[in-house]
Design brief:
The protein is mostly helical and 69 residues long. It has one domain. The chain is built from 3 helices and no strands. α1 runs antiparallel to α2.
Length: 69
């Protein structure tokens, strides 16, 4: 089983709650207004998910060349 320090666990939970709220707001905007989020908003969510994954894995990964453009 994967063990995680209490501090890291709290960071992960906090991050997941924030991401869930952001995604819920985007979903409601799509349902109510029919407007899709800006590409930058989606990129921001993806970047936050990457940061969460790095936190869980314990070491930052090098960005692929395609992300640097």
């Amino acid at each position: 089983m994967f063990k995680m320090s209490q501090t890291k666990r709290e960071q992960v939970v906090s991050h997941l709650r924030y991401l869930r709220l952001e995604l819920r707001e985007m979903h409601l905007g799509i349902q109510e207004d029919g407007f899709f989020p800006e590409p930058g908003e989606l990129r921001g969510i993806l970047a936050q998910m990457e940061a969460l994954l790095e936190l869980l894995e314990g070491a930052p990964k090098a960005k692929p060349a395609s992300d640097l453009v």
